[in-house]
Design goal:
single chain; five-stranded parallel beta sheet; Rossmann fold; 2 domains; Four Helix Bundle (Hemerythrin (Met), subunit A); Hemerythrin-like_sf
Length: 358
């Protein structure tokens, strides 16, 4: 089942006008079987009743039963007539990274950020359906908190949509645009509360060079290579190293393509980066829990920042403002460099300490 026309999709949002908006987009893409629910609890009932849903598109902030609780119930096998590996896409605008990383820990198939349009939704659904999830034991998912946090910006946006969004019926040839989001400045998302570090904080990493793309790539690859220290035989670190090199290579390709490549080609590269990043972050989350790493929340929050920056680049890409596209690209590159040089290095030092390596 590879085409959206063949899918039975359940849309879950506590605002009926948003459900109807998503329905309009899906209809323009040819989807015939679209169902809706106004809460996670209602979605669980719908899934159990029908037994034929192929994909769930869910918001996070709902009651009774938020989107994380819905995803957890599916992954734990607590929903009748529903496979644990059911494809679930989470709608998030990344204003609060903790929710994003909890969804990553619960093995969602991907994210959609607001505002939506038909082209992006189609690409996300296609990528999600082709993603293979290696399910963890149910108890692993039960151990993940489903408490959500919503920033004031998200609450304001939801209120605005409830009063002003007006889904319009467009012809199948025209993509449907999502309600305009409240303009947000390009600021860093809120910093999560500090957790006690296992090792002393390293010095701030040097500034990533901006002028020469090859120098930038070399600095990134050197930072990634430092995460494979001698003396540690850990298959995850080798997987992480190889995946990082692939991500960084794709990131370099994106930079080379910004000048003259069509947005669709660049978007495809960014999709690969996001998919590889999400897979890596999920595996690292499980690895850190297994090894009892105390600063897991702050580490995963930075993963959320990287996913946010990836989505921001996609959004700017379709805005067609070259200065903003380049700024978003550099922000993503910097986020990766800082994370590899500091947070990832701290985790490697923690593993060395556990193994008794000085």
């Amino acid at each position: 089942m590879e085409h959206i026309r063949e899918l039975a999709i359940l849309v879950v949002d506590d605002q009926p006008i948003i459900n109807e908006f998503y329905r309009k987009i899906l209809e323009t893409l040819g989807c015939k079987r679209i169902y809706s629910a106004l809460s996670g609890q209602e979605a669980i009932e719908r899934l159990a009743e029908r037994g034929d849903i192929n994909l769930v598109l869910t918001d996070i902030d709902m009651q009774p039963g938020n989107g994380l609780e819905l995803l957890q119930a599916i992954r734990c096998g607590d929903v009748d007539n529903t496979p644990r590996d059911l494809c679930v896409l989470v709608v998030s605008d990344y204003n609060y990274r903790h929710n994003v990383m909890k969804a990553v820990g619960l093995d969602c198939h991907g994210f959609l950020s607001k505002p939506l349009n038909a082209d992006v939704l189609s690409a996300k659904v296609h990528a999600a359906l082709h993603r293979q999830i290696d399910l963890a034991p149910s108890d692993t998912y039960r151990g993940i908190s489903t408490e959500i946090k919503v920033s004031p910006a998200v609450a304001s946006y939801g209120s605005l949509v409830a009063h002003k969004a007006r889904p319009t019926g467009s012809s199948p040839a025209e993509p449907v645009s999502a309600p305009a989001a409240v303009p947000q400045p390009d600021l860093e998302p809120p910093t999560p509360p500090a957790e006690p570090a296992v090792e002393p904080q390293p010095e701030a990493p040097p500034t990533l060079p901006q002028s020469d793309p090859q120098q930038v790539q070399k600095a990134l690859e050197q930072a990634a290579s430092s995460l494979l220290p001698p003396g540690i035989q850990d298959s995850f670190l080798h997987y992480k190293h190889d995946t990082l090199r692939e991500i960084l290579h794709l990131l370099y390709q994106v930079g080379e393509s910004l000048a003259d490549s069509p947005p669709e080609e660049i978007h495809a590269l960014i999709e690969q980066i996001e998919q590889l990043s999400t897979d890596l972050f999920q595996q690292e989350y499980l690895h850190q829990r297994e090894h009892g790493y105390q600063p897991v929340s702050s580490h995963q929050a930075e993963h959320g920042l990287i996913l946010q920056r990836t989505q921001m680049l996609t959004g700017k890409l379709y805005g067609r403002r070259k200065d903003r596209i380049l700024k978003a690209y550099r922000q993503l590159r910097e986020a990766w460099y800082r994370h590899i040089s500091v947070k990832d290095q701290q985790y490697v030092e923690f593993l060395q300490h556990q193994a008794g390596i000085k």
